[in-house]
């Protein structure tokens, strides 16, 4: 493969470092703060995820922040000197950092006017973004033009699904997803929200159920409702340091949809984990277009 452009993404995709290394995909590492110190999400390379969630359980309150334009400039310039760029970005609706990406793009295109620099908004994050990356990168490996790969992502981004539930409502409260009152009464009544990646590119509440078991059954049922061609798919099962429950969820999923080709378990990275918290469980797949 000798492409005229480089395929780049960001770590908010939760794309495993091993896959990025194998496919030679450069990844912009996104920042998070923990206990007063800034770190960069390396998608599992340093293996800090279990410790990260342990600190959250002990009371730590991590946060995330925007990556400055200067960092994007420093990252992108060595590539655009040599080739055009296709940057597969996490949803513009979840952060204003896309504005800094576009500012860096403008500066670099002024400096290198003969180059192309395409930014594709996946309207996805974490596992759904990973699925779009892997699907698009197959075309890239086959020698497809940048415009063809971009079109594939735009045509398929509404088919990338995540259905999830969280274990503790306080993390949604901190992120402004629910009010303090809702969090208090929800906790008292053991209410578990079912959350999905919506048409607008945000994580949206889909419904509420009572109890963890009902929540897991519900995300399995929503997967069965929306998934297409399961026999051709590797479904992702993401967890916030809850591997034992994730294995149980895997069994539930395969009992409900036995034709699924394979299921891969993966711990959620710290940037995404900062917002959903330990105990989060998510099923990620390609399917019918999002309705919510």
Describe the protein's topology.
Layout lengths: L4 E6 L6 H7 L3 E2 L2 E4 L2 E4 L8 H9 L5 E2 L4 H12 L3 E6 L7 H15 L5 E5 L4 H16 L4 H11 L3 E6 L4 H5 L5 H9 L2 E7 L5 E8 L1 H15 L7 E6 L3 H14 L5 E6 L2 H7 L4 E6 L6
Helix pairs in contact: 3-4, 5-6, 9-10
What does this structure look like?
Helix content is 41%, strand content 23%. The strands form three sheets. A six-stranded mixed β-sheet has the order 10-9-8-13-11-12. The chain is globular. It has helices at residues 17-23, 49-57, 69-80, 97-111, 126-141, 146-156, 170-174, 180-188, 212-226, 243-256, 270-276, and strands at 5-10, 27-28, 31-34, 37-40, 63-64, 84-89, 117-121, 160-165, 191-197, 203-210, 234-239, 262-267, 281-286. It starts with a strand and ends in a 6-residue tail after the last strand. Strand 6, helix 4 and strand 7 form a beta-alpha-beta unit. It is of the alpha/beta class. Helix 3 (69-80) crosses helix 4 and helix 5 runs antiparallel to helix 6 (146-156). The chain contains eleven helices and 13 strands.
């Amino acid at each position: 493969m000798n492409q005229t452009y480089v395929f780049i993404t960001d770590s908010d995709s939760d794309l495993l470092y091993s896959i990025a290394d194998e496919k030679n995909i450069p990844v912009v590492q996104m920042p998070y703060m923990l206990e007063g110190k800034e770190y960069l999400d390396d998608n599992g390379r340093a293996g800090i995820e279990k410790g990260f969630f342990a600190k959250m359980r002990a009371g730590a309150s991590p946060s995330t922040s925007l990556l400055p334009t200067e960092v994007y400039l420093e990252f992108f310039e060595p590539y655009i000197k040599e080739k055009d760029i296709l940057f597969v970005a996490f949803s513009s609706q979840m952060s204003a950092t896309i504005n800094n990406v576009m500012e860096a793009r403008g500066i670099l295109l002024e400096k290198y006017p003969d180059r192309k620099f395409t930014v594709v908004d996946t309207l996805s994050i974490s596992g759904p973004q990973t699925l779009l990356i892997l699907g698009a990168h197959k075309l890239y490996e086959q020698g497809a033009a940048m415009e063809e790969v971009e079109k594939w992502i735009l045509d398929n981004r509404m088919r990338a699904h995540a259905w999830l539930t969280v274990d503790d409502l306080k993390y949604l409260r901190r992120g402004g997803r629910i009010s303090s009152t809702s969090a208090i009464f929800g906790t008292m009544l053991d209410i578990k929200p079912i959350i999905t990646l919506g048409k607008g590119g945000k994580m949206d509440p889909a419904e509420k159920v009572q109890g963890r078991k009902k929540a897991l059954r519900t995300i399995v049922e929503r997967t069965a409702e929306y998934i297409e061609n399961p026999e051709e798919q590797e479904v992702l099962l993401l967890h916030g340091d809850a591997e034992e429950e994730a294995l149980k969820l895997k069994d539930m999923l395969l009992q409900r949809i036995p034709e699924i080709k394979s299921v891969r378990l993966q711990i959620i990275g710290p940037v995404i984990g900062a917002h959903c918290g330990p105990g989060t469980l998510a099923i990620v797949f390609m399917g019918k277009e999002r309705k919510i």
